[in-house]
């Protein structure tokens, strides 16, 4: 397989916030809460996991994707 399967980004901002019930963390893409395929709010158990996911998505948003290819 050649090429990359990278879709067009539909969001401009990634945020994390504490769950409404104070239990866990949720992710927001342009102020929209991220949901699971069953349309439930995605809840992350720890702040460190929420930070890691937010950092990954923010990196993808601001990178061209060629850094990994050029590092080889």
From TrEMBL:
A Pfam match: ATP12
GO CC terms of this entry: mitochondrion
One BP term from GO: mitochondrial proton-transporting ATP synthase complex assembly
InterPro entries: ATP12_ATP_synth-F1-assembly, ATP12_ATP_synth-F1-assembly_N
PANTHER family per UniProt: ATP SYNTHASE MITOCHONDRIAL F1 COMPLEX ASSEMBLY FACTOR 2, ATP SYNTHASE MITOCHONDRIAL F1 COMPLEX ASSEMBLY FACTOR 2/ATP12 PROTEIN, MITOCHONDRIAL PRECURSOR
Protein name, per record: Uncharacterized protein
């Amino acid at each position: 397989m050649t090429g990359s399967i990278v879709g067009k980004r539909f969001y401009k901002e990634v945020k994390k916030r504490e769950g409404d019930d104070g239990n866990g963390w949720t992710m927001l893409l342009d102020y929209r809460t991220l949901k699971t395929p069953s349309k439930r709010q995605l809840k992350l158990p720890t702040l460190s996991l929420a930070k890691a996911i937010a950092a990954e998505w923010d990196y993808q948003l601001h990178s061209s994707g060629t850094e990994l290819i050029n590092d080889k």
